[in-house]
Amino acid sequence: MIKVAVIGGSGYTGAILAKLIAQHNELCLSGLYVSAGSADKGKALSSLYPELMGQVDQPLLPLTDAALAAIDADAVCLATEHHVSAQLAPTLLEHGCKVFDLSGGHRFADAAVFPQFYGFDHPAPQLLTDAVYGLAEWAQASLAQAALIAVPGCYPTASLLALKPLKQKGLISEQGVPVINAVSGVSGAGRKASLISSFCNVSLTPYGVLGHRHQPEIETQLDHPVVFTPHLGAFKRGILATVTVPVAPGTTEADVAAAYACYDASSKVYQLPAGQWPKIDDVAGSDRCLLGWKLDSERQVLVVASAIDNLMKGAASQALQCILIRFGIEGAL
Ligand SMILES: NC(=O)C1=CN([C@@H]2O[C@H](COP(=O)(O)OP(=O)(O)OC[C@H]3O[C@@H](n4cnc5c(N)ncnc54)[C@H](OP(=O)(O)O)[C@@H]3O)[C@@H](O)[C@H]2O)C=CC1
Ligand SMILES: CC(=O)N[C@@H](CCC(=O)OP(=O)(O)O)C(=O)O
């Protein structure tokens, strides 16, 4: 049994991850933590999320010292804000735990990205070059050895699963810039009440235009420039990323199909039959990514639509995949 603690256990991603860990027969939940001053400390997780009654009734413990979470844990998951994860990770690693960070606190090797896109100076820049970016389908070998795993962002997961097979096969025009328009449900903003995510305020609108922190994350992991525009939509869960890709001259449908054949039957990525497009409702609550695409070979343009659940493949279920790969447990892919 691998013992896993979750810090940020009362949040949207942390609660789902706690459930996935509790359900897995080779993992057990060693502790669930919230901040030392949390209004929820001492409460059972299932009192916040009644659908978890009988599944995760453990109490949310106040994290007065990061080392507490390391007690009796092989792994610790950080479902906390970026700067909180960055502060907690060094102590957990010093105590010998494998750390799975769901935030953006360790997704860049270059510490200079943090003040620019995250608004803080990284407290442990020496850890960044060894952190493994856990896009599960693309990082199996490096995950198997990693101590610190940066679980990818939700929009980057949807975008990179669509774009990386094309890049790998040289199908993205060298001079061209893929354009990603992605819509997220409101749970992407987390559980805390805010005007931005209040029911009457949410409609459908772009935000973070030409400045969202996921643009450099996608570009770094793809090794290609992109234009990324996120949108907030009036639904709870899911992301639909529609990606317009300028393709290399001569690219055929057979080339695109061959590129996506990298996702075999055991992966969490599924291609829809030609002419079918993914819908948010097809992925909400699931650990899968659905892809649909169409090529205009005359105009050398490919449109790919990629749908995931932001809280699952975009966060918690991808973290679970990373844990399973890291500890050599079957069923990750
Ligand atoms: N929501 C999403 O779709 C996705 C989120 N992520 C990332 O995952 C992380 C978690 O996101 P999400 O679940 O949405 O966030 P939430 O706001 O829903 O939850 C945050 C959790 O962190 C706890 N917390 C806050 N401060 C501390 C602290 N100092 N020590 C310990 N626990 C603390 C909160 O409890 P309390 O405040 O009561 O202490 C709460 O349990 C974020 O970094 C987010 O960017 C990544 C991909 C997708
Ligand atoms: C709808 C919404 O607000 N989405 C969040 C992205 C989700 C997230 O938490 O970002 P990370 O993957 O970087 O952790 C945002 O745009 O900031």
From TrEMBL:
Domain Semialdehyde dehydrogenase NAD-binding: residue ranges: 3-146
Gene it is expressed from: argC
Organism superkingdom: Bacteria
Subcellular localization(s) per the UniProt record: Cytoplasm
Enzyme Commission identifier(s): 1.2.1.38
Family: Belongs to the NAGSA dehydrogenase family. Type 1 subfamily.
Reactions listed under catalytic activity: N-acetyl-L-glutamate 5-semialdehyde + phosphate + NADP(+) = N-acetyl-L-glutamyl 5-phosphate + NADPH + H(+)
Protein name, entry field: N-acetyl-gamma-glutamyl-phosphate reductase
Catalytic residue list: C154
SUPFAM superfamilies given in the database record: Glyceraldehyde-3-phosphate dehydrogenase-like, C-terminal domain (SSF55347), NAD(P)-binding Rossmann-fold domains (SSF51735)
UniProt lineage: Bacteria, Pseudomonadati, Pseudomonadota, Gammaproteobacteria, Alteromonadales
Annotated pathway: Amino-acid biosynthesis; L-arginine biosynthesis; N(2)-acetyl-L-ornithine from L-glutamate: step 3/4
SMART domains listed in its UniProt record: Semialdhyde_dh
Main function: Catalyzes the NADPH-dependent reduction of N-acetyl-5-glutamyl phosphate to yield N-acetyl-L-glutamate 5-semialdehyde.
Coiled coil feature spans: none
Pfam families membership: Semialdhyde_dh, Semialdhyde_dhC_1
Keywords annotated in UniProt: Amino-acid biosynthesis, Arginine biosynthesis, Cytoplasm, NADP, Oxidoreductase
InterPro entries: AGPR (IPR050085), AGPR_AS (IPR023013), AGPR_dimerisation_dom (IPR058924), AGPR_type-1 (IPR000706), NAD(P)-bd_dom_sf (IPR036291), Semialdehyde_DH_NAD-bd (IPR000534)
